[in-house]
Amino acid sequence: MTVQTPSPDTALAETMLDMGARARAASRALGRLGPDDRTRGLKAIAAAIRTAAPAILEANKQDMDAARKKGLSDAMLDRLALDAARVDGIASGVDAIAGLPDPLGRELARWQQPNGLDFARVAVPLGVIGIIYESRPNVTADAGTLCLRSGNAAILRCGSESTHSSHALVDAMHAALEAEGLPADAIQLVGTTDRAAVGHMLSGLDGQVDVIVPRGGRSLVERVQKDARVPVIGHLEGLCHMYVDGAADPQKAVDLVVNAKMRRTGVCGSLETLLIDAAVADTLLPGIASALVEAGCELRGDARARAIVPGMKTATEEDWGTEYLAPILAIAVVDGLDGALAHIERWSSGHTDSIVTEDKDVAERFLARVDSAIVLHNASTQFADGGEFGFGAEIGIATGRIHARGPVGAEQLTIYKYVVRGTGQTRP
Amino acid sequence: MTVQTPSPDTALAETMLDMGARARAASRALGRLGPDDRTRGLKAIAAAIRTAAPAILEANKQDMDAARKKGLSDAMLDRLALDAARVDGIASGVDAIAGLPDPLGRELARWQQPNGLDFARVAVPLGVIGIIYESRPNVTADAGTLCLRSGNAAILRCGSESTHSSHALVDAMHAALEAEGLPADAIQLVGTTDRAAVGHMLSGLDGQVDVIVPRGGRSLVERVQKDARVPVIGHLEGLCHMYVDGAADPQKAVDLVVNAKMRRTGVCGSLETLLIDAAVADTLLPGIASALVEAGCELRGDARARAIVPGMKTATEEDWGTEYLAPILAIAVVDGLDGALAHIERWSSGHTDSIVTEDKDVAERFLARVDSAIVLHNASTQFADGGEFGFGAEIGIATGRIHARGPVGAEQLTIYKYVVRGTGQTRP
């Protein structure tokens, strides 16, 4: 008799397939629960995270030590770091998700046909969601519990930097689910930091993963786009524009541009290109520019902008296509609404674009014509956020064109089925 | 100076990329139209198809001659064949699509946040849809015009058998669009029968294809699943079940089973497995079985079914997993609702499943628990059809779990954007 030792690859494949099968079973078990069960589980998870705070902080210390040894940047270290307040914030986030309306079982439409058949379109979970993300440990709790709220089983793959913190968080979540008699496999964390595990998730784990949600930078997104064999609800770039129209209120223009660019420069809803109507560029651009510079922003302008504000660097074609995620702003002077629409059609990533104007007709034309997930009138692009939309929490901002666009909250993690009630109808 | 002749592959790639770019431009032009423009275009297309009937029939004769030479089956020839009545039927289908409510611009939700921001979720087109289908020429008109109704540009790839018929139909559609001053590139047909063209479509044509809709058999679906780099709204199997419960009305049970299986056996909503409650199998199965045999159906039963109706063939595991699309039915005796649910959970393809019972509680438990795109109570599985749902027309039945499940009509070919109206709000 020969005993074969499985290779590490085979062992990983088996582990991942087993996770998929357990996620599917958990998703079916979740389907039999009522909304109150899910709420009870979520509240228990929030409490368990608070109780486990010492263990979570201890685990985070291990991650931080390793990250410092690896020489991670201060920005990365800050994203990874937890303290008592942050752990409490994570628990409060879960409490907020527990308080969201349950998105399942909603009757989205109902109608009758002449033959007497009664049709209902009813919200149901997507099934099993694979979430691949980077360093922030809070995503482990946010994503896992948002899936639970929407009746989905989650397979989480955190970045290697946050592996100890994420395991500690998942341990707390499991303890809560088990204590409440709910399926602990509803929230699973991939145990290995082996990057091959991501490949298995992208392959769909033999049909057991219904959708992949990537949360991360360009290299992750590109890998997911290339290798995923299952649907992806993903996020590409947030190359956001603000168009200051000839009929803009001058003070609103300054306030909105500065807020859109500088409130936080590293978020996907931050402004990357300012378009200003030639009709008012002479009068408005100098004030906007000095407010930006005062706030610490580097400006890069086209020739017309630089003719008005001479100090700027030159913006090249590359600038129009760059998501800086930094205190840098590209500025172009355009000829009215049509000029703005042409620039946006050419360069926008379809994430979030805004117009500043007091002319309602111009605003409505902008809102109708710009084909981005989020279009705004007289409001900062930084409102591109599920919390600001009133969704309570989000798993990301979708930039694809199917299933969901914009903030992906609990409702967007559902789909529907048709329930047809008859009295014996046969089809002629 | 060296002149390089492009290789056929390069030439095809360029042709396909050009189609993609023109489709994107047409989709943007469609976005500027109002619902009445789309309706006008659709009515003109219906009229143009009627006018072009002689040319369409002549082209179809070429396809039929070639198909006979290739030795296509009678069933395939019947799907391909057009006559005056069928062409008129295609035109009437387009008229019906013209009469559908326009799905664009609908306000799907609207709400205000405490800071005064006003949010609207508004229906918009998906963009550019690639449709890959097999022999039936009517799909050329159905798919093209359903995309036009929903504001999407269509890139159509027909089966090689129907290429002349499809070109004649598209010529008529183009003539109508041009006469109405609408973008003819909104409906494009891939000009070559080269299978490599499908590969280009699946690659997304450099970001110009937003979604692929495959309509065809298993080999097409498998290729699309393997190679698509863009989202797919697709259709796998219709492995449909009907569960005859202990509380079923005997006559309804016979009528529904016979209709679900035998009305048309080649459609995805046809019944493939009958599950019957052990409590009534002795009394009801003989009558159901003889009605099916009389209608020309072959029966394959498990041991318990064969003990009741001895003439049947033996059903193996393979039968539970087979979409026959033929006058064959697999039959299993199960122990009540739980037995039926377990069988369906194991074997259903998630397309359409039905229960026959007079017990409303049992029915509601079945409708809640079976996680298929369409679940029915006391109605035939053959109602799995967009027309029967009142959608007017469909591009297929989706068996995936994101974006759309069940019949995909004009409404399902849309997505949404968020329109946010403010008065100068900045984010704190």
Structure notes:
The structure is a homodimer of 428-residue chains. The relative contact order of chain A is 0.13. Chain A folds into two domains: 12-233 and 408-419, Aldehyde Dehydrogenase, Chain A, domain 1 (3-Layer(aba) Sandwich), CATH 3.40.605; 240-388, Aldehyde Dehydrogenase, Chain A, domain 2. Chain A has 428 residues and is an alpha/beta fold. In chain A, β14 and β15 (406-407) form a beta hairpin. The first copy, chain A, has helices at 8-31, 35-51, 53-70, 74-80, 84-98, 138-149, 163-179, 196-203, 218-227, 250-262, 278-294, 303-308, 317-320, 336-347, 360-369, 386-389, and strands at residues 107-112, 118-125, 128-133, 153-157, 187-189, 211-215, 240-244, 271-277, 298-301, 313-314, 328-334, 352-356, 374-379, 397-398, 406-407, 414-425. Chain A is globular and about 65 Å long. The mean pLDDT of chain A is 95. β13 (374-379) of chain A pairs parallel with β16 of chain B.
Quick summary:
By secondary structure, chain A is an alpha/beta fold. In chain A, 45% of the residues lie in helices and 20% in strands. Chain A has 16 helices and 16 strands.
Write a concise keyword list for the protein shown above.
homodimer; 428 residues; alpha/beta; Aldehyde Dehydrogenase, Chain A, domain 1; Aldehyde Dehydrogenase, Chain A, domain 2; 2 domains; seven-stranded parallel beta sheet; four-stranded parallel beta sheet; 16 helices; 16 strands; globular
